[in-house]
Design goal:
Elements: E1 7-8, E2 15-16, H1 26-31, H2 33-47, H3 49-57, H4 64-72, E3 88-92, E4 99-104, H5 105-114, H6 118-130
Antiparallel strand pairs: 1-2, 3-4
Length: 134
């Protein structure tokens, strides 16, 4: 005979199904859906589970070591601004999914607009600068 574990709703203390993800009974969940989902998703984001899924859905393939390295970064890899001043973004190659580094929003957007062929972009920027009249 298998004894099933009983879980108690965090809100009303009634018995809930064992496989509940949030820890709330159906009634309490539906009465307070927005706050519960926000709390649940926030916890998953902080633990790294949702981040890894979020990045893999967008084509970035990261190992656990790369995620730890990304989380430890405090400055943008291009402009050296602190991530306390700007949001941290994960930069990756859109063709291969390889992680390249942590960038601020502005640098990540600039790279996104310039494209992934950075050698070509740098060469064209240098040629443009050489031909500038000021």
């Amino acid at each position: 005979m298998v004894i099933q574990e009983k879980l108690i709703c965090k809100s009303c203390s009634t018995t809930v199904r064992k496989d509940t993800k949030t820890g709330y009974c159906a009634s309490c969940f539906h009465l307070n859906t927005d706050n519960i989902k926000s709390e649940y998703n926030s916890a998953r984001w902080k633990s790294g589970v949702s981040k890894k899924h979020h990045w893999s859905f967008r084509g970035a393939i990261l190992s656990d070591q790369e995620i730890d390295y990304f989380n430890s970064q405090t400055q943008c890899g291009i402009c050296d601004c602190d991530f306390t001043e700007s949001k941290k973004c994960l930069d990756h190659c859109h063709e291969t999914g390889v992680y390249r580094g942590a960038l601020c929003v502005q640098c990540n957007a600039a790279l996104g607009k310039l494209g992934d062929n950075l050698d070509l972009v740098i060469a064209r920027l240098q040629a443009y600068k050489a031909n500038m009249k000021w």
